[in-house]
């Protein structure tokens, strides 16, 4: 099992890679208050998001789901989704990816607050 701790800054916050293996990837995600990820989907991976700190709003195929610490949301392959932090403290959650490919280029963006394209 490969273990690669490294952090990438993004306009909405940051993510830290905790594990990156051929069969799964684990990230610690931190979204700053008032920020959100792009509305996106992945063709080759599903995600399981477990909230540690803060309150998140997950949009999953157009439906909003509030998630508190200790709660989780499953995002199936090819489901449109985004995570937002509407709170006043950082939202921190663990994202477990499973599937056949975990590269950042498996992101199809439908909406993005930061004008990024897929």
Q: What does the model show?
A:
By secondary structure, this protein is mainly beta. It has one domain (6-111): Jelly Rolls (Sandwich). It is 0% helix and 54% strand. The strands form three sheets. A six-stranded antiparallel sheet has the order 1-2-3-10-5-8, with no helix packed on it. The N and C termini lie far apart (29 Å).
Jot down its keywords.
globular; six-stranded antiparallel beta sheet; mainly beta; Jelly Rolls; single chain; 54% strand; 118 residues; three-stranded antiparallel beta sheet
Task: Walk me through the topology.
Blueprint: E1 6-10, E2 13-20, E3 24-31, E4 39-41, E5 45-53, E6 56-60, E7 63-67, E8 72-75, E9 81-84, E10 91-99, E11 108-111
Antiparallel strand pairs: 1-2, 2-3, 3-10, 4-11, 5-8, 5-10, 6-7, 6-9
In brief:
By secondary structure, this protein is mainly β. Helix content is 0%, strand content 54%.
